[in-house]
């Protein structure tokens, strides 16, 4: 399939067809938005008292609307067919549209570059398509990419995953196969190993996905490991948290051996089972009785005890300002945390509650304005983490159940030294199997 579309002279897309039986060739309807009937304001109106009636309900067809709202663009399999095709002739209901690596055109002559056409950067993914898939030097394997270039490629790859995950699949187990053509071509450029949607060379960045504004329920029937975006059902608004580059620190997780059991001979297709082994820093996740008034975040040294009594926890994604004094040698810092559970909040009142821990994925530094009442330009060190659930029989076997961040705010001149904190008994260096 990859080579068929990639080497095609032209792909024809039925952009307005809802199903295979729908007709692709249409006669332009006289009841279209172009009709503007004229009405007199009154029966005695003169020639100057006439108004034209134009519909404000019907959306005028253009390629941007077909791409954004058309039925073909809701189908998951059609995504890689679009990406892998160097030239596409789109059939709408009003007219035809041309797409190639250089841009777009429509039959009515609408100037390209306006709102009637998609944004090339968001739609064509120019780095991956122009510099990789359709480059003259790509097939001979002579193209080499710097670390910065790989990060640019990964940014577009993650954008592709985000767009792909908004689409529907008739068969949910096709989640990885319907994306496999893109992964197969990208592998030559990225290198390393392809791990059920995650690149081993960029595994830290690729692990930091979440569903925007909602949960991300894991598919009950096994389709992918818990740390892969493919574990969630289709049509989700997936996003990645690493907007800026993750810093390189001595505390970064290290990817060790992995195991992928494939469902077919396609190395980029469906999987029966997968796990990765990581050497990483973790924190125990505790459940606070009253997080609003407690000076602690829900991460604690391993000597801390959970309080007894009625339990209460903040909802996923909430942010609570706190103050940490001893951890940073009494430095005046403003910190906050947020967490997002992939599925429902755990039942903390269970007789035998499951154990949770937080795995450090990376450190992100950025500048932003913050303050109470006034905006002060400062810096933020954000610890990007995964929330893991321990296996009841083996604490070293874990599955991903959510995302968590710990934000540390400070002035540029007062950057805290995190080394003593990472070396304290808050953190533990562990070798974990993530399933």
UniProtKB/TrEMBL annotation:
Domain of life: Eukaryota
Residues in Heterokaryon incompatibility domain copies: 1-81
Annotated spans, Disordered: 297-316
Pfam families in UniProt: HET
Stored InterPro entries: HET
Name this polypeptide is given: Heterokaryon incompatibility domain-containing protein
């Amino acid at each position: 399939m990859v080579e068929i579309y990639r080497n095609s002279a032209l792909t024809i897309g039925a952009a307005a067809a809802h199903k295979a039986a729908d007709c692709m060739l249409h006669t332009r309807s006289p009841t279209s938005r172009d009709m503007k009937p004229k009405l007199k304001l009154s029966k005695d109106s003169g020639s100057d008292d006439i108004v034209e009636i134009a519909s404000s309900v019907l959306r005028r067809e253009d390629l941007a609307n077909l791409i954004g709202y058309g039925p073909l663009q809701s189908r998951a399999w059609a995504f890689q067919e679009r990406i892998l095709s160097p030239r596409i002739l789109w059939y709408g209901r009003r007219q035809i549209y041309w797409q190639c690596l250089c841009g777009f055109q429509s039959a009515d002559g609408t100037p390209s570059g306006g709102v009637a056409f998609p944004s090339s950067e968001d739609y064509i993914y120019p780095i991956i398509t122009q510099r990789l898939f359709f480059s003259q030097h790509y097939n001979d394997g002579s193209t080499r990419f710097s670390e910065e270039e790989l990060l640019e490629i990964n940014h577009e790859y993650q954008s592709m995953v985000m767009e792909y995950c908004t689409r529907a699949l008739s068969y949910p187990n096709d989640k990885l196969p319907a994306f496999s053509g893109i992964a197969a071509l990208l592998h030559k450029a990225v290198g390393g190993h392809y791990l059920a949607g995650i690149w081993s060379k960029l595994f830290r960045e690729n692990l930091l996905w979440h569903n925007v504004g909602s949960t991300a329920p894991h598919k009950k029937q096994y389709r992918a490991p818990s740390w892969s975006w493919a574990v969630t059902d289709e049509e989700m608004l997936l996003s990645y948290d690493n907007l800026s580059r993750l810093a390189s620190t001595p505390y970064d997780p290290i990817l060790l051996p992995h195991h992928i059991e494939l469902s077919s001979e396609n190395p980029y297709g469906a999987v029966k089972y997968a796990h990765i082994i990581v050497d990483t820093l973790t924190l125990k996740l505790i459940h606070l009785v009253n997080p609003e008034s407690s000076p602690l975040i829900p991460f604690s040294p391993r000597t801390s005890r959970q309080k007894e009594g009625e339990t209460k926890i903040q909802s996923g994604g909430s942010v609570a300002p706190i103050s940490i004094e001893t951890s940073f040698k009494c430095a005046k810092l403003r910190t906050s945390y947020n967490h997002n559970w992939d599925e429902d909040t755990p039942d903390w009142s269970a007789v035998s509650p499951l154990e949770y821990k937080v795995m450090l994925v990376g450190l992100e530094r950025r500048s932003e304005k913050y303050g109470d009442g006034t905006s002060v330009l400062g810096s933020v060190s954000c610890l990007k983490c995964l929330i893991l659930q321990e296996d009841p029989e083996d604490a070293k076997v874990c599955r991903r159940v959510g995302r968590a961040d710990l934000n540390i705010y400070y002035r540029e001149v007062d950057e805290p030294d995190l080394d003593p904190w990472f070396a304290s008994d808050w953190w533990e260096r562990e070798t974990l199997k993530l399933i």
